[in-house]
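FYI - complex with S-adenosylmethionine, inputs then prediction.
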Amino acid sequence: MLSESKLLHKPVMVEEVIRLINVHPGGFYLDCTLGCGGHSLAILEHSSPDGYLVGIDRDPVAIAIAEEILSQYKGRFTLILGNFVYLSELISKTGIDSFDGILFDLGVSSMQLEDPERGFSFSKDGPLDMRMDPNLSLTAHQIVNTFSLDELENIFKNLGEEPFAYKIARAIVEYREKKEIASTKELAEIVSSVVKRRGKIHPATRVFMALRIYINSELENLQKALNQAVSLLKSGGRLCVISYHSLEDRIVKKFFRESKEKIITKSVIKPTREEILTNRRARSARLRGLEKL
Ligand SMILES: C[S@@+](CC[C@H](N)C(=O)[O-])C[C@H]1O[C@@H](n2cnc3c(N)ncnc32)[C@H](O)[C@@H]1O
């Protein structure tokens, strides 16, 4: 499982993150989106021999994988299963009150995307699930089979910025009158039946993204977590956020602008061409950083 999962998620802009957070020995670091532990591994390495890391993820599978990946640094990290929307509360249980660096690497990991059973991807046939946290009650299956045309249209329009939101919502409602929508492939085919492919982008890309954001309350969680993160920073401590779509990046940019802290990324940092060539997932990544005064 170890080598497989290592291949399953390639961490994005690792060197840039390490530099921006200014990782150093003896520092305390918080990774709010542990995933498969790629960034955390680099943070532990660069803060050797005595830096300490707390890692959070709401997905128990991610926690189990990261535990294994980071095992060589046993004794220098604590992993917490939880939602970063409750950041202050989760951290209060660790006995650590402030950090030198905090990271959010938003969205889902390749490990989650690539597992057909999780239902995140239109390119893998699986059940319509899309929950990062298996304890959430709402799934994509419930949404596409029970939400009204208006509700579906709003989700696709507001969270997916999908120009054909109404057309897609109508196709879904018409389809389910005859048959329940059971799988990711079925949903992708419904979307493809009414929307043409735009360049290299699959017609269902925005619909899947919108459903995932809605189910996991991604934007609300981010909005509520940023303030908590800043209050957990030491003076001179740094917050880094990697976002993958404009709605997320807009929240981060606005929060940074309105904050009284120092913005350390005058313009947003994007991955190099070389990184994009070896990791397609990196292409939409945007990195922003803030230093607490
Ligand atoms: C892009 S991946 C992180 C990958 C990680 N940096 C690595 O190098 O492997 C995002 C992770 O954040 C987790 N996540 C997303 N929203 C979360 C939230 N509100 N609370 C806790 N974890 C969350 C997801 O479950 C996923 O594992």
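The chain has two domains: 2-111+218-291, 137-215. Residues 1-5 have pLDDT under 50 and may be disordered.
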